[in-house]
Amino acid sequence: MSARPIPGAPEPLTGKRLLVPATQEQGRSTAGLDGAMLRRLLPSLRPHGRLFGGALLLMPLAAAAGLLQPYLLKEAIDATVLDRSEAALMRVVAIYAVAITLEFVTRFGQTYLLQLAGQRATADLRREVFAHIQRLRVAYFDRTPAGRIVTRVTNDIDSLTELFASGAATALTDLVTLVGIVVFMLAIDWQLSLVTFTVLPPLALAVNVFRRWAREAYRSIRVYIAQLNAYLAEQVAGVRVVQAFGREADCEEEYRLVNAAYRDANHRSIRYDALLYSVVQSISVACVALVLYYASLRAGWLADDAATAAYLGVVVAFYDYIQRFFIPVRDLATKTTIIQSSLASAERIFSLLDAEEPDAPAAEPSLLREHDDGDDCSVFDGLTFAYREGHPVLHDVSLAIGRGEQVAIVGATGSGKTTLTALVLRLYELGAASPSAGSIRVEGMDVRAWNPQELRCRFAVVPQDVFLFSGTLRDNLALDEEGASDERLWDALARVGAADLVRARGGLDAAVEERGNNFSAGERQLLAFARALVRNAPTVILDEATANVDSESEAALQEAVREVLAGRTALIIAHRLSTVRQADRIVVMHHGRVAEVGTHEALLEAGGIYARLHRLQGEAP
User: Fold this and answer.
1) How does DSSP assign 309-344, residue by residue?
2) Which of 44, 82, 454, 541 gets the most CB atoms within 10 Å of its CB?
3) Domains held by the chain: number
4) Considering the domain boundaries, does residue 555 fall inside one?
C-alpha cells in the first residue's frame, strides 16, 4: 500500500531554518482492511476467551430483559384499560420488576467481564509489542524517533482497550438489541413497523459516509500524536543545545505547527461525531412524528372505542420501542468512531510488529564449527561494510587480535573504529539489509554462528556515553549478572577506585536518576568500569571510554582502565593518543581502511598518519 501525505499536515515554515525539523510521518490508507486487522487481534483475545464468552452469553439475556419491558408496558395498559383487573396488573408489575433486575445484573456482569478481558488482552499485546521492540536491530532505532515508538506502546494500545472493552463487543450487543426490537415491533404491529423502517435507508447512508470521514480523522490523530511525542522527546533530550543557541522561539513555532495539526485532526473527528449524532437524533424525532401521525390516522379508522382502547397499548409500546430502536443506532454510530480510532491505532501497532528487522538471529548452522584453540581471539577477514548502499564505512579490513592482546584502534572521526566493535557484537549484522563482504570470527567461529546472547556475554563494553538506568546502583552494577553478591560488587568498585564514591552516595541502594544525571561524567565512567569487572568477560571493549572527561579525571581513570584490562583481551577505541601508548599494537584507521599497524614507538618513527595525529594533539613523545 503506497504511502501518502496525511490530510491537514502542517505547512513548513518559510524563511527560517529550524534547529530540529519536525518528523513527518506518512500514513497508509487501509480501507477494506478492517476485517483483516480484527482477525490479527484474535490471538490477543484467545487466552481470555472465557471472559469474552461469559460476556457474550450474558448479552442476549440483557437484551431480552430490556426488550421485554415495552411489551410489559402494553400489557399493563391492557390490564388497566381493557380488563380493569388489578390482579393482572400486579402480575405484570412483578414481571416488570424481575425484568429490570435481570437487566441490571446481566448488564453489570457483561460490562465487568468485557472490561476485565479487554484490560488483560491489551496488557498481553503491550508485552508482545515491547518484546518485539527488544528484538529489533539497532539500525531500526537509528532512524525511528523514540517518541514514535513510545506512542505505539502507550497511546495506540490504550486506544485498543476501548475496542476490546467498549467497542466491538458492545456494538454486537447493540446489534442483538436492534434485531430484537425489530422482531418485537413486527410481532406487535407490522404496519407501524414498516412506517418506522422507511427512515433506515437515509440513516444507513449517513452512518456510512460519516464512518469513512471519521476513519481518516482518527488516522490523522494517531499520526500527529506520534509526531508530537517524537518531537517532544527530541526537544527534551536536546534542551541544552536549544537554550545554548537561543533557538527556543523557532522550536516553539515548529511545535505550534505540529500541535495545530493534531488539534485540527481532533476538531475534524469531533465535528464528524457531532454531525452524526445530530443526524441520527433528527431522524429519530422525524420517525416518531411519522409513526404517531400514522397511528392517529389508523385510530380514526377503528370501528369502536374498545378497538381504540386496545390500540392505545400498542401505540405506547411502539413509541417506547422506537425510542429504544434509536438508542443502539446512536450507540452504534458512536462505537463506529471508537472502532475507527482503534483500528487506526491497530494499523500503526501492526506496522511496528511487521517490521522485519530482527536483532542478530540465532546461530546459522552452515557457519557452525568448533571453537578454535589457536592464539587468535577475534579476526576481521576482508571486512567491507556499509550502513546504506553506496556509502561504505569499512573497506577490506583484515585484523587479528590475539588472546590476551591489547589492541588500540585510532583514527579520525568517521574512519570506522566504532563500526568494528558494533559488528563484532552483532549489533549490526553482516549482509542484513546492508552491503557487506568478508567475515568476523570470534574464537575461531564466525560471529553469525554464535548465539547472540552467548557471543555478547564474552565481551564487556565500556562506552563513551555511559548509560545508567533509573533504579539503584546495585541494579546498574549487576545488570545482567543475576544474583551477584554485594561482596562481588564492592570488590569491583574498590578495584576501580569507586568504593568511596558509592559509600558517599549512600551505598549500593543509592538511587540513580534518569540516565544517571545525578552522577558526573567521570563518576559514570568509573561505575561503567566497575560494571565491566562484575561481568568478568574474557574480552573488554573500551569505546572512547575516557573521551568525555577532563585530563585530571582521565588520570584518575587510568588505574581503573589498567584494572579492567588486566589479564584480558582488549579492543580499545580512542581519540586521545595518550590513552593507547601502552597497547600491544595500535591500528590506525583512515577512511575505513587499515592504514598503519605497530607499537607507539614504531608508528612515531614511521612518520605517517599516527605521527601526524600525535603532533596535532601536542602529545609528548
Assistant:
1) HHHHHHHHHHHHHHHHHHHHHHHHHHHHHHHHHHHH
2) 541
3) 1
4) no
